Every structure is written in structure tokens, then in C-alpha cells.
Amino acid sequence: MxxxxxxxxxxxxxxxxxxxxxxxxxxIVEVWEGFITTLVGMKITFSHFFVKRHTVQYPHEGIPIAAxxxxxxxxxxxxxxxxxxxxxxxxxxxxxILAVKPVAGVDLGTRPNGKRRPLHxxxxxxxxxxxxxxxxxxxxxxxxAIYMITDYHYTTTNKDSLFVxxxxxxxEERDKVVADAAAEKAAKAAAPKPAPAAPKPAVVAxxxxxxxxxxxxxxxxxxxxxxxx
Length: 229
Ligand code: SF4
Ligand code: SF4
Fold this sequence. Notes:
The chain has helices at about 25-45, 85-90, 135-140, 170-190, 225-229, and strands spanning about 1-5, 10-15, 70-75, 95-100, 120-125, 145-150, 165. The protein is α+β, with helices and mostly antiparallel strands. The longest helix has 25 residues, at about 25-45.
């Protein structure tokens, strides 16, 4: 006796004959058992037409993703202030940032959150193929510029496509801001340094007049003779 359960949990069983017959009888028994066991298998298959599906036809169909699930890191470079906190905390070191200070007189404006844009975000790359989805980088960002999105459809056969640069600077623009910053730094270093300020003359304290000395008390008590006169 063999026992199985359908998808609905209904136990099903069937008898398998172990009795040996001769010739044509044995052949008929085996064909019959093959037919019956096929029907049992198809009974399980057909029962799935009446139960809820647990699979989807990916990639043509998807399943709802929880809003706070960890699927993929994304950087809103317009919000980024270039503080490097995410770069420092990433345990696998896959966030590479090149933030360049603008030269004097250049104002980079404000970010969408109203804060001043302090640096050129000349480079901001993440190698997604090495990401652990730990989310640490999202917890340290004070500007909410790096966060997880629910997009998990980034399967690829080209590993290089997972290396993403979120910077909006072209290679030429990046090279220019780097060169400008380096030139300004060199110019500052070459500029003659202002002469050191002359030492302040020492302040000589004027001698304070000594307070007048008080005369010691010298009045004599009148003696007994003096008192009688
Ligand atoms: S989720 Fe973790 S591993 Fe991935 S980039 Fe952020 S800190 Fe690095
Ligand atoms: S922590 Fe946020 S603001 Fe700082 S560099 Fe990373 S993404 Fe930009």
C-alpha cells in the first residue's frame, strides 16, 4: 500500500500487487497498475487547478515588494552633499566618491532640500555586484541621498553593467574641476606669505604709589599721678 497526499491535503492510496502471475496475466496486471498510478499522479496535478498559486511567471509577472525591503541601493546625486559617510561605513568598500571643492567665486547653488551645495560630485560609483544589501550606507546619510529601492529586476549577463556611476559630470567636466582645484591650491601655496606681525611692545606697568603708612597708636594711658593733676 503506497500513500500520498494531494495539494489539498487529501490522502490518496493505491495497492500495488506484488503477486507474480504467468505470461499474459502478469502483463495485463502491470499495464493496469501503470494506468492506475498515472491516474493517481494526474489527480494530484489536476488538484492544483483549484488551489491558490504560489508561483508567478517571472519575469513577465512580479510579486508585490514591501516598501522597506532591501533590493537595490540608489543614489539621488542632487541631494548628496559629499560628506563621505557612506563611503567610510561600507564594509566592502564599493562606494567610490570624488567630491571636489569649487574654486573661489564659484557658487554651486542649493540642493532640492534647500541646503547649500558645497562640492562638485565629480564621481560617485557603486559596484552593485559586490553589495551586501546591509543598508549601513543608508543609515548614515544625513541628506537621505542614498537609499534602497524596490527594483530587483537587474539580472544581467554583463557584470560591468552593475558598476554604476551616479555622478552627472562627464569625464571632461570631472577632469576640469579637478584641474581647477589643483591649480588654485598650487597658486595658494606659491603665493608669498604675509610677513609675520611685529611683536607687540612689552607693557611696562607703572609703579603704583605706596599707600601712606599709618602711624602706630602711641597715645598713652594717663598714669595714676598724671590723673590727679
Ligand atoms: S548596502 Fe552595505 S554593502 Fe551595499 S553599498 Fe551600502 S554599505 Fe555597502
Ligand atoms: S552619506 Fe549621503 S550625503 Fe554623504 S556622501 Fe553618501 S550619499 Fe552623499
